[in-house]
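Take a look at my tokenised protein here and describe the backbone shape.
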Amino acid sequence: MAMPTTQEPPREAVRRWAVVLAVPAAAFVIGAVALPRPVPIGSTRSGASDRDLAGVVSRVTPQPRSKVDAVLGNAVRLHGADLPGAAVAGGDPLALRFYFESLAGLDQDWQVFLHIDAKQGSYRIHGDHFPARGRYSTTLWQKGEVITDQWTGTVPRGAPAGAYDVWIGFYIGDDRLPFSGGDDAVHDGVDRVRVGTIQVK
């Protein structure tokens, strides 16, 4: 008596193998299409898009209204600032713009300190902040980039009238980026740089 056989006809076997082999091939094709493009490290770490950094990062030499020449930590050159030309009063908005050039990479996230000090007396307006409103950490700065840092605050209503010097620098905790070159006349000896003067009325 002949035993039943489970062997498939050659044509059916070929068809089944063709199906099995076709699935991995399709998977490779789909995978290649679905893979995302590589994302620049800067975008991944900061969460900032090109739109977020528009007007913040460039490679054009800035032309600030109040020019200075100061290098901090052999890594950042301060070109100067745009300060208000007219006197401001208590309660008025105060907008300052600073221009930094990256000379070398920084491996720490430095914060900007901003001291607006009355020439007479000890009154100070504080404006410490992270550059570019925190959208572009100093660890991401690339050599040759010019970073425009906009700070906006309000003149305290109790601020005495008179002239105020605007001092700026970088710090982490108790450490400051040291003054390492440029015009000694704008350096106060404790790693602050004077970028100009404003008037409070």
Q: What stands out?
A: Helices lie at 10-34, 41-46. Residues 1-6, 12-47 have pLDDT under 50 and may be disordered. The longest strand covers residues 162-172. DSSP finds two helices and eleven strands in the chain.
